[in-house]
Amino acid sequence: MLCNSSYNITLRTAFAARSKPHDAFISIARNLVEAAGGFSITDLFPSIKLLPMISGMRAKLERWHQDLDAMLESIIEEHRARNANTKESDDVTDDLVDVLLNLQDHGGLEFPLRTENIKAVILDMLIVGTETSSTTIEWAMSEMIKNPRILEKAQAELRQVYDRTGDVNELDLHELKYLKLVMKETLRLHPPVSLLLPRESRERCKINGYEIPAKTKVIVNAWAIGRDSNYWNEAERFYLERSIDSSVDYKGTNFEFIPFGAGGRICPGMSYGMAVVELFLAQLLYHFDWKLPNDMKNEDLDMTLIFGATARRKRDLRLIPIPYHPPLSVQ
């Protein structure tokens, strides 16, 4: 449910209601996510250049790429045609494709924005953002269910803010200080992508006595860094108070905490993804109380994970929602 909702939110953000991507679009995106996180013998023997062709993975990736490229090209051309026939007086809300096309046509960036760049941004949001957002939401809910005191405080904050109107919206998200602590600790223990996208070393170097040649593929384990006891006290504990009055943040300037990467290739969808996750969690926590099924105790919740493109729960989180009714004064 969470994953499907994330896909729907991203599709509406990117294409609004002006385009209707087929189910094939989402299907191919999911195939790419699974392929990125799955086992491939070519990873064990990267020097054998024929393996990608023998395994058949390259042919699959090329076919998926061609199909996605054709769909995106069609969507972009549809937006261009409609924008050409839209008057300034028309009440039309721009979606992501409209914004990017406007930047392409009128400039405003330090570099030219090509159609290929627009396609890449959309794919980053759809393929990476949706899977990581749903995984982060599920882990945040899991940790709060495991720690009822934290869940209670997060809901109390939300209801204090939103009981005034009875409507959860993004305009008041900045007031949710405690929920932001929940998010930071969730990202530390459960980064959206446990192994960051591969980088390549520019020059020869030595790290802890190991010789790293130039042009070596480097994979950073963000999951292990966030649990390193050299940098985090009680590293395995979900402890929100560690972030109070702390300048350490997830935006790439503190290398002990890099769930989105760092530097020039930090995740471009970080701000969008965090907004989606915070708003989604706020909706879930405000409108419902939550409990485990079958009288299960909170401390018995299984937190086992499996690694893939994202570090997901081994077993889906199953909870019973209990509708919350705000005070009559705001209804």
Defining traits:
331 residues; mainly alpha; Cytochrome p450; two-stranded antiparallel ribbon; 11 helices; 48% helix; globular
Please tell me about this protein's structure.
There is one protein chain. With 331 residues, the protein is mostly helical. The protein has one domain: Orthogonal Bundle (Cytochrome p450), CATH 1.10.630.10. The protein is 48% helix and 7% strand. The chain contains 11 helices and 8 strands. Strands 1-4 form a two-stranded antiparallel sheet. A two-stranded antiparallel ribbon has the order 2-3. A two-stranded antiparallel sheet has the order 5-8. Strand 6 and strand 7 form a beta hairpin. Helix 1 (2-15) runs antiparallel to helix 7, helix 2 (23-37) packs antiparallel against helix 5 (57-84) and helix 7 runs parallel beside helix 11 (270-287). The longest helix has 32 residues, at 115-146. The chain is globular and about 60 Å long. The model has no long low-confidence stretch (mean pLDDT 85).
Total DSSP helices? 11
Tally of individual domains: 1
According to DSSP, the number of beta strands is: 8
The CATH superfamily label reads: Cytochrome P450
Q: How do the strands of the widest beta sheet line up side by side?
A: 1-4
Strand content: 5-15%
Low-confidence stretches: none
CATH topology: Cytochrome p450
* Mean of all residue-level pLDDT scores: 85
Order of helices and strands: HHHHHHHHHEEEEHHEEEE
Largest sheet entry: 2 strands, antiparallel
Keywords: Heme, Iron, Membrane, Metal-binding, Monooxygenase, Oxidoreductase, Transmembrane, Transmembrane helix
Cofactor: heme
Membrane topology: Single-pass membrane protein
GO molecular function: heme binding; iron ion binding; monooxygenase activity; oxidoreductase activity, acting on paired donors, with incorporation or reduction of molecular oxygen
